[in-house]
Structure formats: structure tokens, C-alpha cells
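Quick one: structure for this chain?
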Amino acid sequence: AIRILQGMFQGVVFPCLHELWTHWAPRSERTHLVLTALDGIQMGTVNALCLGELLVEFVSWESVFYIFGIFGCIWCFFWGRTIKDRPEEDQSISQAEKEFILQSLDDVEGQSKHPWRAILTSSAVFACAVVNFCQIWGSNTILTKLPSFLKENFNYEVAPSAFISTLPYLATTIALKIAGSQADRLTGLCTTTQVRRNFTCASFIAQVILMLAGALVLNAIQTSILMSLAVAMRALGWAGYIVNLLDLSPRSAGVMMGLVGSVGTIADITSPLVTGLLTPNNTVEEWNGLFLITAGIFLVGCFVFWFLDSGELKPWSIEKREQDKNSESSSINDFSTNL
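Got it. Here's what it folds into:
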């Protein structure tokens, strides 16, 4: 029951972050800022793996929950004191910075309702949901089954080596720093659609190549490095489809992230189950079949995103804004007439 509640509370984090970036991230720095926030997740995982192992070994297993729980409470305190919904409410930034942010943002004020029908029937939103499912499926397959794969094929134990366990997350951290800045730089040279498509599809193709290469080599260390690099390449995809929701409709980015994340949760649940069914005996043939299926899922996501995605502001986002403004004007006129 506690784990269910934990998952429910964690589920709102990414939609809330997208809602926050709607008011804070200028278009010219959008990808860099979003990926910087995601970078914190990777470093948090690295610290948790290293510190958690030390706490279990030298203190007790209960101390892991107490220590990280205390850290969470401290973070909540500073988050509540520091973070503001909008730049206008933040007294800690300069007037020049505030004006720069406000002038660089898309118009996101005044929407009373989200255009649900348009969102649910949008090919671009569908494409983002599909690639998120594919990405989570692939990442989970590599991250959760890599230790078993190394043990069964190379008789190599990952658990004693904290460095090997954290390698995928450290590699992702480096990739995030590069992908964010480069995507924003290229946005000034190419269309937003081209940038989002190229980064997402390059990410998926790179993951397929590195994952299959890691499955074919006959050395545990080389396999670990190649698989870690495959996981790191998801950073390129995040610079594409995750940020893409802010391009489509800044006003509805939060709810769209919630929908896309919900689809990804299906992969979270089903990927370990299917992986277990496909590798009952942990033979080389079973593992190769699993990696080939995962590669196929990546390629399907790549194909769908390339042909269905768009990086431009959607007409239904603009239309909804105009409808809201017209509705407000009509209400004011009716009120004036009654007076």
C-alpha cells in the first residue's frame, strides 16, 4: 500500500515540472533547462546507490529509509520557500532577467479549459506517447536485466561493484548536458520539428546499435560499457519528445505530460513481466531474442515519431486561447448590458 501511494505521488512530478517550465523556460533555453532538471534524477540515483550501499553495510537497512526520508523533507522545505509559479512572483531575480523570461515565453495566460478532444486526437501527442512507451520499455529491459545477463553469460557479479551499477546513470548525466545545449543551439538553425525528430530518432537508432553490440561482444566489461552507453543515449530522446510537449501547447504541456507518462507506466509494468517470460532458462538464444524484440520496439517508436511528430505550436492551442478570450469578452459585455 505504501509503494502504491509512493507511485501515485511520484506520478505528478513530471506534469508539475512541465507546468512550471511553461512559465519559466524561454524558448531559446527550453531544452537545456528541462534536461538539467532530468539530470538531477540521474545524480540522485547515483548517490542513492552509493550511499544506500554504505548505510546498509555500516549502519542498518532501516537507516536507508530514515536518511533519504529526512533528505526529502529538507528538500520540500527549501522547494516551498524558493520556487515560485511565475517570474513575476520571484523577488530573487533581477528585473532584467525577469523581463527577458517574460518576453521570451509563449502566451500561456487566460486558458480556462484544456482542449481535451484535440489533445487526445493529436498525432504529435500520440507520437510522444508511443516513443515514451518504447523508451521506458528499452531502458527497463537493459537496466533491470543487465545484471542477470552478465551473470548468466559471463559469470560476472554486478552487485559488488558500485561503479558498474552507477555507470548507466553517470553516462546519462554527461549525455544530458551535451544534448540540452546542442538541441537549443540547433533550434536556431533548423525548425523545431527537425530538431525534435532528429534527436529522438538518433537516440533510438543509437540505442539499438549499442544494445545489440553489447549483446554480441564476449566480454563482461565491454558489454557493461556498451549497454551503459545505450542507456545514456536516451538523453538525446528526452531532448526530443519530452521537451516537444512544451512546443505543441505550452498551456496544456502539464496534462499532456501526464497522459504520456501514464502510457509509459504501462511499459514499466509489462516490460519486466514479458522479459521474464522470454528468458525462462537464461540461455544465450533467449537473451538474443529479447534484445532483438527490444530493438524492434525502438525502431517502431522511431518510425512513428518521424512521421507523426511536429515541433510547432498546434492550431488548437491558439484556437482555445482565442475562444477563452472571446468568452471572457462576451461575459464582460453581458454584465455591462445588465447594469
